[in-house]
What we know:
Strand order of the largest sheet: 5-4-3-6-7
CATH class: Alpha Beta
CATH architecture: 3-Layer(aba) Sandwich
Distance between the termini: 64 Å
Helix content: 40-55%
Order of helices and strands: HEEHEHEHEHEEH
Number of strands: 7
Shape: elongated
Structural class: alpha/beta
Number of helices: 6
Radius of gyration: 20 Å
Number of domains: 1
Strand content: 15-25%
CATH superfamily: Glutaredoxin
Amino acid sequence: MKRLLFALPLVVAMIIGGFAIWGLSGGRDPSSLPSEFISKPVPQIDLAAIEGVERPGLSTADINDMDGIKLLNFFASWCGPCRAEHPNLTRLGQEEGVTLIGINYKDKPEAAAKWLEELGNPYVALGSDYSGRGGIELGISGVPETFIIDADGIIRHRFAGPVVGDGLRRFLEALDEVRQ
């Protein structure tokens, strides 16, 4: 019995070490988290407009009424990576022929309005998700997170993390897949 108790810390350390090695090994893309919503319509959401921003609120019906490919981006003024990806999303909305839709996640309306005024507002429609309910409905893991929605209103790709650097390249590849 004493031998078993003596060996127990060694066994636990080996198990933890094995998980650490597995977690640090390559081959996994943290931005491509699985989602039960891939290949399904956008779930029901109904979000109010952001106070102080001249854009309407956002509902699933609004998304379905929009033509072409849509990018549904969850962002927040307190999110550094959201600030980093904002110029890339703005460019995608202007140059790639996609409709950019925003959901301000767990953010104070005045902070969101100031952030959008400072960085520019590329979003056709915006919803305020102060309670986080919209994020729950879409199963997000945090911000930033962007969904690619096809012309038929079907979610085709979920991208967790900022659309910058290598992430931008992978995002553009996913966007090209949806276009085909």
